Amino acid sequence: MSPCEDFFLFSGGNWLKNNPIPGYASSWGPRNLLGDRTQATLRQILEEAAANTSAEKGSNLQKVGDFYASGMDSAAIEAAGPAFGP
Fold it and tell me: pTM value?
């Protein structure tokens, strides 16, 4: 395609072809890819921290792992129910 016909497709057509807009998004760009990659990296860090049973007690790794694991324990959360008031 010539830049005189459609400069948008000429300049970004290859990127658009290789990075289609996902069904859940109304727009898509490099910022979205960076955000997705950051979320995946954070999830991996948190899951590894939660699975690390040899982390030193009181260490940041142990605290982060315990906090994440407690938030992901949906059975315990459901069993506890809502806690309102004193």
Answer: 0.65
